[in-house]
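ARCHIVE CARD
CATEGORY: sequence design from structure
SOURCE FIELD: tokenized fold
FIELD CONTENT:
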């Protein structure tokens, strides 16, 4: 497994942890959102560098900074400028599929944790 894939697996697991944390800290979901956003930003920043290294290319100038400021602009910029429109576009679509899959992991963790803790810790609800 490539290092960039390990980073994406770690980020997917962060969605699982965020789903559980949102139930446990139900009254303070804003804090868990901010922590998860910081984890995602740092992870995507490192992913960009590792992914570029694995594919023997220099990340386009400013792409890592754009990922820090706004990942939804920085990631497609990195992929399309680094790999070209066709290959970068396909990689971007794969990235959207990864994000949707990770969000499903978050949603499943949120629902399952909510059902498990319903009645166990009534003071949470």
């Amino acid at each position: 497994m490539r290092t960039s894939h390990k980073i994406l697996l770690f980020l997917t697991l962060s969605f699982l942890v965020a789903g559980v944390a949102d139930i446990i800290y139900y009254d303070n979901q804003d804090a868990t959102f901010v922590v998860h956003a910081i984890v995602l930003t740092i992870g995507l920043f490192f992913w960009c560098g590792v992914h570029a290294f694995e594919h023997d290319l220099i990340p386009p100038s400013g792409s890592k900074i754009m990922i820090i400021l706004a990942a939804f602009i920085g990631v497609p910029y990195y992929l399309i400028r680094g790999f070209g429109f066709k290959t970068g576009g396909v990689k971007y679509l794969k990235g959207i599929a990864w994000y949707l899959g990770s969000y499903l992991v978050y949603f499943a963790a949120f629902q399952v944790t909510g059902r498990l803790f319903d009645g166990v810790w009534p003071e949470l609800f």
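CARD ANNOTATION: The CA atoms of residues 114 and 120 lie 10 Å apart. The radius of gyration is 17 Å.
SHELF: design records, drawer C
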